[in-house]
Amino acid sequence: MSDITQSGPVLAADGRPLKRSLARALRMQKIRALMLIAPLLLFVLLTFILPIADMLFRSVENRIVQDTLPQTVVAVQDWDADSGEAPPDAVYEALAYDLVVAAERKQHTRVGTRLNYETPGISSLFRKAGRRVDEVGEGYLKQFAALDPAWGEPQTFMSVFADPEWLASRAGAGDEPPFQLSETAHDALPKASGAYMNFARTIQEEDNDSPAEEEPWAPVYMALHSDLAANPQAAQAFSGDAQRLLQEAAALIESGQMETESARDAFVKMDKDWADPEVWRTLKTYAGKYTNGYFLNAADLQKSPDGPELRPEDERIYGTLFLRTLIMSLAITCSCIVLGYPVAWILANLPSRTANMLMILVLLPFWTSLLVRTSAWKVMLQQQGVINDTLVWLGLVSDSDRLVMINNQFGTIVAMTHILLPFMILPMYSVMQTINPTYLRAAKSLGATNWTAFWRVYFPQSVPGIGAGSILVFILAIGYYITPELVGGTKGVFISNRIAFHISQSLNWGLAAALGTILLVIVLALYWAYDKIVGIDNVKLG
Amino acid sequence: MKLSKMSALAVTTALCAPSAFAEEMANELTLVSWGGAYQASQHKAYVEPYLAQNPDVKIIWDESSAEAVAKIRAMNEAGNVTWDLVDAVASDSMRLCDEGLAEEIDHDEVLAAAPDGTPASEDFGDLIVSDCFVPQIVYSTTFGYRTDLIDQPDSVCAIFDTEKYPGKRSLQKRPIDNMEWALYCDGVAKDEIYDVLGTDEGVDQALAKLDTIKDQVVWWTAGAETPQLLADGEVVMGSTFNGRLFSAIAEQNQPIGMLWDMQSFDLDGWVIPAGLPADRKARVMDFLKFATDTQRLADQAAYISYGPARASSAPLVGKHAELGIEMAPHMPTDPANAGNVHTYDYEWWADNRDDLDAKFQAWLAK
User: Fold this and answer.
1) Which ranges does the record mark as transmembrane (chain A) (predicted)?
2) Pairing of strands A309-310, B169-172
3) Which CATH number fits domain B140-265+329-365: 3.30.360.10, 1.25.40.10, 3.40.190.10, 2.60.120.10?
């Protein structure tokens, strides 16, 4: 004792302060515990959380427009969408440069599909344009070639655009290194360099061809014309044949003898809708890397010039579906409680041999295929089904107006209650098993009626089981889609049916992800509310 | 270490014998189809004879065609395509081709010519709706009705006539075909259907027509539902694929009749996923050439009542393999059945599917 009072901090056996030594031991323990759960944590992270996060991320991701049409997206920013007119020619030119690459890489229809979600018809615009975009600027191609046949030679373009170092390196054996631009060309002919670079890289990557052996596509000539028209002195930067060819072309353009060709006309000739400002407004609106468009759509909203607005009434659907999903899941949970509680009570109060037998009866449907059980309900509930036949035979309903019990909400609630019942009974049963029967006897011996004893003594103790069962059933119900799809008809389907539809049929994964995110948030919010009201400590799974 | 040795070995083999490498064919082939009677007909008509010729090959069936586009897209994003040859409907093949998820094919080079030497592209003709698509069959979505419960209808508009033909009807839970039938029965000329449907008023008109029978309709999503509903007497008439109705009528002897009026033609065929390794692709090409020749396509018609996609196969269509009945009169393409057909516009639906689907679903939920 006297030692301690003398020397401040308490020391452990090895002479280090006890506090630090203790902290170290605890830390070791924590690390050991963490190591033990690490495999599971890693597994859950890799197989569950990351894929889900990736999927949810799609609800805001919109890179495709910018990645596929980079120049168009920049060019269209200067255009006023409210002007009521189609954008200027330069935007169409940029579109031609972008689209010819995208078409070669087969990405143009993906953009078309993306934008078609917002404005119907864009999909076919892009599909058609993809087939013919390599003709945009063909007039220039012919005029250049007529001016000097050298313009039809791939080598000419090599001498103008290629980086000398790259030219030297490709002389070696094996695969051609990725095409490099010369700095001279990049500075003197900016548009044409970009267009040619895209051409060269694309045919290298897509076709495994060499730009030294392929004549460039027509939009490159259009870009060349555009550069030379803007800067007739561009040829000065070059030397030799390249300089001569460029000078001749620039002279022709300056003299006004080269016929000009409008990129806009070329696109409008493919489809008149290219002149429609709405198409361009959509492209401009959805040009960003991220979009809230999917979430707006999932909330029955749409973008408009004055901010988000409600969709036309005949297109609103998701609000109804979310609400219906919640209400019907609640109804299913309630009917599971009502049906499951007595069963769980009987199971918990019978001698264990009989209880085990009955337990098998509860579990048996649990082991049967979901589809089989759902189909069985079809046979039971349909108008020519078992129940209706029996009722008609008994004379309770007439043959002409048999009850409609399937392909509506009733059918969904019945079938799903049956399917989810074990998830309610099992937690209730395990909680009820732990309730000591002497409490009830005590209550009765103190004068309580059967009802009072049950309601004041037994029921409060079984609430954690109800809570656990309800959470299980409700959360399972809210995400169900097979059963509602089969027996729900039109009024008994859930939001998950639409999510499944967008995943596997319409392929609008962004919208599916937005709907899924909203559903997840709703469930988490309900869970939070449940915790506040009932308290999550009051939930027992066994 | 072991891995790098292996890959080094593979590289040297590839470098030393590039030609031999390209010729080599994988011995496993994963085919994707629709399951049920249709897949069985493919198995008997092409796969069994092919296996007899190539005993080393192992063929694996996957019944995922209903989700083919979504799954191929997912496989492609993951960079691991496990399917070799996929059976898809024409519109799906176009979507796959558009997105660069399917291999483009030179039909004359890859496929066998007809016995008389007609090149494949002519033999298939207009049915090659996409560069990635090798058509196998022509099927149709059409109506069946209970012969014992209602009078024989002679027009597709019987579905909208609940007075003369009382009882429930089953329709597919999607706007495609239903919207067209509704407009046709509302007096729109056949060749103007898509022009009308392209306007908001046209959509309203079609939905208003469907509204008149909305409470009498059972909506189906799987092709097997209508035959079942008809057999149970749940509905008195309903749309489904003609082969499903054929098997209910001819194989199960149900009291069901065919209503061919305004049947909606569609195609089904093979698609090769993009980016297969060379050895697997070589095997696929070998199988594809065999499985789509004139005789094989004609053989398939002995098991299911879908019309072979080759013109040269039509004369070879014989009797049902088990029932022994002539198959030609049960084909959707038979002149007696194809008097009044609805021609489905792929391009139009590719543009408007999402938009109309939203409206259709909102209408259903109302």
Assistant:
1) 31-53, 321-348, 354-372, 410-429, 463-482, 507-530
2) unpaired
3) 3.40.190.10
Whether residue A201 sits in one domain with residue A155: yes
Assess if residue A293 is contained within a domain.
Answer: no
Distance CA B181, CA B162 (A): 15
**Helix, strand, or coil (residue B249):** helix
Task: Give yes or no: residues A143 and A195 share one domain.
Answer: yes
Query: How close B126 comes to chain A (CA, Å)?
Result: 19
By residue count, chain B amounts to 366
Instruction: Collapse the DSSP code of B310 into the 3-class scheme (helix H, G, I; strand E, B; otherwise coil) and give the result.
Output: coil
User: Which residues from chain B sit within 8 angstroms of residue A124, using beta carbons?
Assistant: 347, 350-351
Of A315, A449, A384, whose CA–CA distance to B229 is shortest?
A384
**Same domain for A330 and A201:** no
CA angle B186, B191, B193 (to 5 degrees): 45
A314 C-beta neighbours (distance < 10 Å), count: 16
Whether the CB of B232 is below 8 Å from some CB of chain A: the reply is yes
Amino acid identity, residue B196?
Answer: V
Sequence letter at residue B167: G
Token reading at A499: 């999510």
The residue among A233, A267, A262, A250 whose CA lies nearest residue A144 is A250
Q: What is the three-state SS of A277-301?
A: HHHHHHHHHCCCCECCHHHHHHCCE
Average pLDDT over residues B203-212: 96
| Chain A touched by B351 (CB under 8 Å) | yes
Q: What is the identity of the amino acid at B170? A: S
Mean of pLDDT over chain A: 90
Q: How far is CA A450 from CA A446, B11, B294, in A?
A: 12, 83, 82
* Over residues A120-141, mean pLDDT: 89
- Domain match, A276 and A351 both: no
Print the domain residue range for A215: 138-254
Structure tokens at A539: 């939930």
Burial class (CB in 10 A: 0-12, 13-18, 19+), A186: middle
**Structural domain count of chain A:** 4
Considering the domain architecture, whether residues A401 and A529 belong to the same structural domain is answered as yes
What local confidence, expressed as pLDDT, does residue A335 receive? 97
What lies within 8 Å, CB to CB, of B79 at 6+ separation is none
- Domain B18-138+268-316 matching CATH 3.90.600.10: the answer reads no
Task: Name the residue in chain A with its Cα closest to that of B231.
Answer: A384
B44 touches A at CB < 8 Å: no
In chain B, where are the structural domains located? 18-138+268-316, 140-265+329-365
The helix/strand/coil state of B77 is: helix
Quick one: which of B75, B179, B95 has its CA closest to A506? B95
pLDDT digit string, tens, across residues A146-194: 999 999 889 899 888 988 888 888 776 567 888 889 888 899 999 999 9
Nearest chain A residue to B366, by CA: A491
SS3 category, B256: strand
| A432-444 tens-digit pLDDT | 999 998 999 999 9
Residues B178 and B175: their CA atoms lie apart, in Å, by: 6
Q: How far, rounded to the nearest angstrom, does the alpha carbon of residue B146 sit from its chain's CA centroid?
A: 25
ipTM associated with this complex = 0.86
Count of C-beta atoms within a 10 Å radius of residue A404: 16
> Which residues in chain B are contacts of A113 at CB distance < 8 A?
98-99
With contact defined as beta carbons under 8 Å apart, do A216 and A224 qualify?
no
Fold matches, B18-138+268-316 and B140-265+329-365? yes
Q: From the CA of A370, how many Å to the nearest CA of chain B? A: 17
Report the length, in residues, of chain A: 542
In our burial notation (b when 16+ CB lie closer than 10 A, e otherwise), range A443-475 reads: beeeebeeeebeeebbeeebebbbbbbbbbbbe
Cα(B25)–Cα(A49) distance, rounded to whole angstroms? Answer: 39
